[in-house]
Design a protein that fits this description.
Largest sheet: 3 strands, antiparallel
Shape: elongated
Number of strands: 5
Order of helices and strands: HHHHHHHHEEEHEE
Structural class: mainly alpha
Distance between the termini: 26 Å
Low-confidence stretches: 203-264
Helix content: 40-55%
């Protein structure tokens, strides 16, 4: 498992069934290696399965052989604890997928979550971020190498609609300045090409300034997880005086690309 997360540590509890812990760890490795899920997604699966193992331990049940009649007690406990339908649905989905894996491996023929319908959750309208909010966010970056690097992150996040994890593992060759586009690798290692409007890719800048963590051009990133990777390339105006007032972000978006791309 890459990164600092370890399934073994997540399931470290003397109360948990040893066989269940062993198969839960194997399931986590299956999600990352065979299905290509991100570390954050695998962590979420493990946290949800840990909740189920904790309930089984407190109920003195074998978590690998729980029937639907008894599994309903787990649902009652989630409801009594005040979890939202979205959280309950996510946990049921994780347990269902875990038992499907156990079925394929021949560990058990049961899948108590398969007969359980997922609770309906309301769909909230997305929150709209105004142009003034974006400009205010970008103007908090100081006029130093680290601040310009942070501004590059924010500009690219807004322009591409990328996830933070996608920007964190962006490589130098993924940014095409001549074509004004960036190549992103999303969930499941899926690749997509996203067009950029002029401001983040430097069409209106006088000089391109690439920043690398750990070089003399910019201070190293404080995050140990991404300190060795190459950040996105920012194209900023070079000036010895104070930074000029920023133009409106949306004013720089061409009519053919009026809305930044968003991942699905």
């Amino acid at each position: 498992m890459t990164g600092s997360f370890s399934p073994e540590e997540c399931f470290t509890d003397e109360r948990f069934d040893a066989d269940a812990v062993r198969w839960a760890c194997a399931f986590a490795r299956h999600l990352e290696v065979e299905r290509g899920l991100s570390s954050n997604t695998v962590r979420a699966y493990c946290i949800d399965i840990r909740s189920y193992l904790d309930w089984a331990a407190r109920s003195d049940l074998d978590p690998l052989q729980v029937e639907y009649r008894r599994f309903r007690r787990y649902l009652v406990e989630l409801n009594a604890a005040g979890y939202t339908p979205k959280t309950t649905s996510r946990r049921l989905s994780a347990i269902r997928t875990f038992f499907k894996y156990l079925n394929v491996q021949g560990v058990t023929q049961l899948n108590p979550a398969a007969a359980t319908s997922l609770p309906k959750s309301g769909r909230d309208l997305p929150r709209k971020t105004s142009d003034a909010d974006i400009v205010q966010l970008l103007e908090v970056c100081p006029d130093d190498p680290v601040g310009i690097r942070d501004q590059a992150f924010l500009e690219l996040l807004y322009a591409s609609g990328a996830r933070i994890a996608e920007i964190a593992r962006l490589e130098l060759g993924d940014v095409d300045f001549s074509d004004a586009s960036v190549r992103l690798f999303g969930k499941g290692s899926k690749e997509r090409i996203v067009p950029l409007y002029p401001l983040p890719c430097g069409a209106t800048s006088t000089r391109r300034v690439p920043f690398f963590w750990g070089t003399a051009a910019a201070a190293p990133c404080s995050s140990p997880r991404v300190a060795t990777r190459c950040p996105p390339i920012a194209c900023v105006a070079s000036s010895s005086s104070a930074r000029p007032r920023r133009p409106s972000i949306r004013a720089c978006i061409p009519m053919t690309c009026a809305t930044p791309s968003r991942p699905i």
